Every structure is written in C-alpha cells, then in structure tokens.
Amino acid sequence: MEIVIQKTELINFLVNQIPEAQQEFTSLSSQASDCTIAHKLAEVTTILLYQNRFRAVKHCLLAAEELLLHGGVAIKTFIGSVYIHRISVLIDRADNRAEMLEYLLPRDLRSEYNRQLKTCLP
Fold it and tell me: Domain DUF7674 spans what residues (predicted)?
C-alpha cells in the first residue's frame, strides 16, 4: 500500500522537508489551495537559488519530487504543472545557477521535466 501525502499534511510536510523555509510555509493559511502551495514552493526554490543556497534548493527539489511521487491527485497535478514550469523557466536562463539547478534535479523530477519538454516540442 502506497503512502499518499494528503492536503491536510502538505504544509507540515514542507516545513519538515525544507527547514530553511519554515516561516514561509507556516505563514500559509491551512485553507490555502494546492495551487497556492505549489506556487509558494516554486517561489521559495527561486529565492533560495538566487541566494546561492544550493543545499536548501536541493531540499526543495527533493520535497517536490516526493510530492510528485506520493502526493494526492491534485498535488501531483500542480507539482507537475506549476512547479515544473517554474523550474524550466529558471533552467532556460542558461547561467551558472541554471546549470546548478539542472544538476541538482532528482531523477523523477528530471524525468517529468524532460517528458514535458519533449511534449512541447514540435
């Protein structure tokens, strides 16, 4: 039986997985939508990347991958669309941070990124 991370556990999961952004996630309302939480995760990842806090970025990426693999249906959808889109925008900038971000991508998150990239190409 697979463990599924439900909406009620989502904020606590992110607080535990990304201690560097604990305040950002605890400030979210418990009524925040999955989409809002995915946007916040993408925002936190972006901020940490521009602060060159790569260990914290890795924590964000691992949390996103875990949600992609074990989240509820809505969570998987928003991670697969919102979060991957924001990551792809960062990677497309083709600077040193983008190279580091691409290097840090966990396997399943990288697979989803590549799948979406190939789907968009003519």
Answer: 12-117
* CA dist., res. 4 & res. 69, Å (int): 9
Residues 62-96 pLDDT 10s? 999 999 999 888 898 999 889 999 998 998 888 88
Q: Whole-prediction pTM value? A: 0.90
Cα→Cα distances 15→4, 18, 92, Å: 17, 5, 28
CA distances, 17 to each of 12, 24, 59, 65, 76 (Å): 9, 13, 6, 11, 17
Distance, CA of 37 to CA of 28 (rounded, Å) = 8
Choose among 100, 23, 90: nearest CA to 54.
100
